[in-house]
Amino acid sequence: MSTKGGVTALPRRNYRLASDMDKPRSTGIVNEKLLSDYLHHVFPSTKPGPTVASLRKPLGFQDLSSHLEKLLSEGETPEEENKDPSAEGRLGPQPVVLDHTSGFEGLLFVDDDLLGVIGHSNFSSIRATTCVFKGKWAYEVLISSQGLMQIGWCTLSCRFNQEEGVGDTPDSYAYDGNRVRKWNVTTTNYGKSWAAGDIVSCLIDLDEGTITFCLNGQSLGTAFSSIKTGPGVAYFPAISLSFKESVAFNFGSRPLRYYPAEGYLPLQDPPTADLLKAHRLLGYIKNVLSTSIDTQEEKLLEKDSAVWRLQGEPTVLITLAHIFNLFAPLMCKVYLVEDVLMNFLLGILEGGGSVDEHPLIQQLLDLFWLLMEDHEVNECLKQLMMSLLRAYRFSPIIPDLGFQIHYLRLTTAILRHEKSRKYLLKKITFDVLRSVVFFYIKTPLRVKEAGLEELIPTTWWPTHFDKEGKDEREPKDESSDERLRRRAYERGCQRLKKRIEVVEDLQVQILRLLLNNKDKNTGEASRYIFLNKFRKFLQENASNRGHPTALCPPEYMVCFLHRLITAVRSSWDEGSRKSPSSLSSEDAYVPPQLFYNGKVDYFDLQRLGGLLSHLKKTLKDDLATKANIVIDPAEIQAASMDDLDEDEESGAAQSCQRPFGAAAMGGALARPSWLSSPTLGRANRFLSTAAVSLMTPRRPLSQPEKVKVRTLAVEQRTEEDIEGSHGNDGLLLGRPQEEPDQPITDKSLLEIIDGIVMMYNLSVHQQLGKMVVVADEVHEYAVALKDTEEKIARCPTRRADILDELQKSQKVFSEKLNHLSRRLAWINATIYSKEKMLDVYWLLCVCIQTIEHADNTASLFAFTPEFYLNVAMNAYSALKNYFSPANSMDELPGYEETLTQLAAILAKHFADPRIVGTDIKDSLMQALASYVCYPQSLRAVERIPEEQRVAMMRNLLAPYEQRPWAQTNWILVTALPPVCQGCGFGYRYTRLPHLLKTKPEDANLPSLQKPCPSLLLQRHMAELLSTDKDMAASFLNSVLNQLNWAFSEFIGMIQEIQQAAERPERNFVDTRQLKVCATCFDLSVSLLRVLEMTVTLVPEIFLDWTRPSAELLLRRLAQLLNQVLNRVTAEKNLFDRVVNLRLPGLESVDHYPILVAVTGILVRILVDGDKQGTSRAASVLLSDPCFQLHSIQHLLGEPAESAGPTASASERKHFSLHAYTDYISLEEKQKVEEMLEFLTEESKQAAASTAPTSEEDLCPICYAHSISAVFRPCTHKSCKACINQHLMNNKDCFFCKATITGVEDYSKPSSSLVS
């Protein structure tokens, strides 16, 4: 006997006992008669013969091999006789695969077995190696993605290219489930839409000349008839698919999932002889399992096979060894594993109950490992898991999800076997399989076939909307019928949710098995194998962002993330119950030392402080003093050199490495990670230099010893490296002094949580945003249906034609809503349920806690990966935008405190000098801007400590010269105006008033957030601008500069738009240009609101001329206001003409938003101020050469004097504040009238008192003011306004470019006045 893996195994070819020849009448195990009866019972003959034991020939182990071979040969027919005569209509090799040598066009990835294919170019095509010319044939295509593909048949003469594929040439025929059409040069509607997880059967009848397609076993009808047949015509299976689309073919190498109609054969012959042998051998195994030997009574007993145990009985073991001698080689073939073994194991679990109630599968796996060679068990398990995954993924959705539950139960049973689980984890689960599929619950595209009509018989959708077009959660005027419908729909949704939860519980059970850290009997615990494989899985998806074909689909990642969170939290809490001093999962966080001690590989992901190699150089002293980690200079040098030549080396390495899969480009392309084992690329090799020595003692109470780092690859780590032991902190090596010294949880769980956060950042958040589109569609159709029903109610009875069309539309909308509401119920149960919301909320809390702990480490905060801040911001955004209104954020535990913590993080870190990445800084700025737009989050900002609030406002008001341009826009446009929205002049709207006037029923109009002004933040802003005069001047200068730029750009763009519209030829304005134009307009309006807020809060900045820059700022403000008024209010001007074009994309461009903003500023400085201030403001405004009184009159709809009393009504009709009574209060209108009266009087007095000025005395720069300043040392002159504005941005003289050292007042000499 031999020993394998600690288990005794019998030799393969000789099971004859040594005593058999010496003692022919004794077996040495049981008596000869009883053994003979037992063997005859286990191995019954299929031929008629004596049934009485006394008449049968005695059978012992010495005769068993020949007897078994004789039994297996019974019923066999010679190969020539067994051959199906209909197979003569086929040409080509067996097995049938995809032709990756010559039968393709374009770029393709082809799987190892030459059956799976992924498109990697615009429109790629490939055919099989075998063709058919007569008879009936079929093959199946497993749809992995639901995009653009054309599947069918083609002849050898078909020539495809990047634009034309299968079905686009005369002798090719295809079905396209994406566009629901059939193709043969021309195209017509055909079939149903397919979805990922569907199976398409392609049938060709060359005797009748027809081609038919089936979807999930249901015939779609004859697609083509009278196809070309005859001599020289043979058809190949073929497919054309676009970029990223993927399928897998089954020509017969595995059992067809849906056996075709009678008479059709798979292209590849099934292994009939092996299939017969496997079924017979399995029958013999079943006989062994159901038979026991009573040695005392010397008789055989029938028993339930479910209670069979592998107890080491020699008779049973040797009998099974003879069977497995023939059975084991057969179990290495995929067809036999799927058809024989998988169905047998599934049958064991058919009785129901928990998986624990069926120990027979564990016993059988023990038997496999005992009696089969290691390579045979490995291959058998590999094929078994692949078959299970394929069956799970491509099973149709039925109401009770029975198929999915069935396959998951067997997967759970197999993974309960320790040795099998560890082998699958090490070699199969992540390396070969898309194992994440096991945690995915696909969304049905066709609700009727999925049985959702039975599960949710009553549908419902919102029918009540508020003024902003949003759904009301519990409308007060809901009728009793509507309430009954809604409640019936909610009950149906709950039924669906409970059935989905059964599948989710099984998926969590699988992950709990993979996270087992106690199964150390056969080597390393499962959790540590899983952890290293999980990390490599993340590396694949993080390092291949530019190669979509290599990425795990985001819909899989979403489900995987939720199941993993549930399993990890369960394991965490289980450990915390055993150790009361450790944290619960509610308070989970990732300690900061994971980010810099090198034990966890973050690949090439960006850190907050920049590149890791840079941080290791610049912060090496801080690492030594705060974390007792010393970076080896040789490691830093190696990292620096590696960074220089990394690309060249990695390119050479990849070119020398033979790809695992056959790329249909002559092997020029490396296969995606899904189709082969991942290889170590740039990120792993480069960043692995940050790993730490394992021989590190635990931090002693005395002066700690410095630790020197060395390289350590992820796959080389052991349990000790992760958890630590006997003086080794494992993953928590290098604890900073600020970090509390208390147990958290198993260190392996910390790294898994870190991976969960990374996974959310990679693709989960993006997918959560995509799935909201179904809810949006429901809303749009509900609004359209309600609008249609209102039109039907108003339709005159005499217009039967209109009524008929409206009723047709009503029917279409209702049918679509019935479908979408059921589909939405599925999505809400699988993606947006309350439990999933709690998962995302927990992830948000983890990120917040982690950031806070990392922030306490001072400079070491720079090592924190950027994705922690990204996930914190995105998780909050998802909770606010994606899960509502189905679930309310207010119901989350401790939500207000969490909001405050997040507000403190955003307020502190948006201007944190430790953060260097421009993208993450922009994201922080945008998040903060969004945060202050909503009442609940704005209150959270107000709850943070006052010191942090003041620091935040100081950073917001900092001059933009120190920031990137994009951040400046966000600061000035988004972060500040919401602070004052609701306080500004006519600034209380959420829908643009001018659009509501023209399109009151349009639900798609742009909307703004409801005003929620913060008096507290306004007070902080006022105090800062009042006390810090230099900062106030710099801030307002930046605002005025940007307003000047934005409005000038806007005017230039509308000139181009107007010119394009007036050309006689038909011209279309570029949508991008329209978008930029609208953005410049919105920016101008927002900047004007910022100025209005500043004038309101701190009027002395402009009106107190004891401040050095007040007069200059007031003159610049007046100049810009006059420019805006003149451009917008002039009669029949450019602005009017473009607004009247009503171009799509320019909906926000109108008189009201910009004119009320300008009016608000004018009212603040001319009406609301003290007498001295208003006098100064009026004087500056009137002295500006661009000032025109009729622009102010225009605000109240008063015609310009030039129009005259005889002007027509159309000429007199223009903008007026009187037309917006819902948005302009009576008090505001009175102030405008008062302002107009005041300016009218002041302008008359100014005109009477203004003395003529000679041209020589005017400023040579602006020609608007008298010369009042002289420059030193060059003595050139200008007015004070021009030189002060110039010196804010430049120190060189206007004229001679000499550096200006001083500016003195200038007055004209008296002699000049006399002369």
UniProtKB/TrEMBL annotation:
Annotated GO MF terms: ubiquitin protein ligase activity; zinc ion binding
According to the UniProt record, one GO cellular component term is: cytoplasm
State the Gene3D superfamilies in the record: 2.60.120.920, Zinc/RING finger domain, C3HC4 (zinc finger) (3.30.40.10)
Region Disordered: list its residue ranges: 72-95, 715-740
Pathway(s) of this molecule: Protein modification; protein ubiquitination
Q: Which residues cross the membrane?
A: none
Q: B30.2/SPRY domain spans which residues?
A: 76-256
Domain of life here? Eukaryota
Q: Which residues form the RING-type domain?
A: 1259-1297
Question: Zinc: is it a keyword of this entry?
Answer: yes
Q: What is its main location?
A: cytoplasm
What's a single GO BP term from this record?
protein ubiquitination
The record, for SUPFAM superfamilies, names:
Concanavalin A-like lectins/glucanases, RING/U-box
Tell me which InterPro entries the record gives: B30.2/SPRY, B30.2/SPRY_sf, ConA-like_dom_sf, RNF123/RKP/RSPRY1, SPRY_dom, TPR_RNF123/RKP, Znf_RING, Znf_RING/FYVE/PHD
Ordered alphabetically, the record's keywords are: Cytoplasm, Metal-binding, Methylation, Phosphoprotein, Transferase, Ubl conjugation, Ubl conjugation pathway, Zinc, Zinc-finger
Basic and acidic residues bias located where? 716-726
Query: Mind telling me what this protein is named?
Result: E3 ubiquitin-protein ligase RNF123
